Amino acid sequence: MKPKFWFAFALSAVALLAGCSSPSAVAGDAPPVVLKSIAGTDRSQVTLTEASQKRLGIETSPVREAKMVVDGGAPAIHKVVPYAAVVYDSSGSTWAYSVTPGTARSYVRTPIAVVTVTGDVAVLDAGPDVGTPVVVVGAPELLGAEAQIAGEE
Asked: Does the pLDDT at position 119 exceed 60?
């Protein structure tokens, strides 16, 4: 899919996240999304409430290794993720949202280097460690939340 599609899709996150709080919510309720800046980067840890997580239908899958043939070379072991885990920012850079270790419902945008896409699998040259859970459903919405895209924009 094209980067512009994913960015446009991330814009739709607003409607979903805006609906995470009910009109009858009282002052003091937790916001649906909390952003915590990551020092030395332009990224934030994105933490969702339980209701937000459910509404977005967040699902994860671990980074794994697979024997793949890339660019006609010999079969070799590569890191792979479902292509659904790959998100593109407005400059075309590739990312995946990794689950923050030891936290509930917290995610960090992690840079990845996609070598190729084969079917529904992205072969990586760089990215999270093998076994790290990455978001495969709801990643564009997390990007929209991190970018603080509001429903009115």
From this structure: yes
Strands (E), the chain: 33-37, 44-48, 59-62, 64-68, 76-82, 87-88, 94-99, 106-111, 113-118, 121-126, 133-137
> What percentage of the chain has pLDDT greater than the value 90?
67
Residue 91 confidence (pLDDT) above 50: yes
Q: Tokens 């793949």 label which residue?
A: 68
Whether the pLDDT of residue 23 is over 60: the answer is no
Domain locations along the chain: 3-21+31-146
Q: Which amino acid is at 9?
A: F
3-21+31-146, which class in CATH?
mainly beta
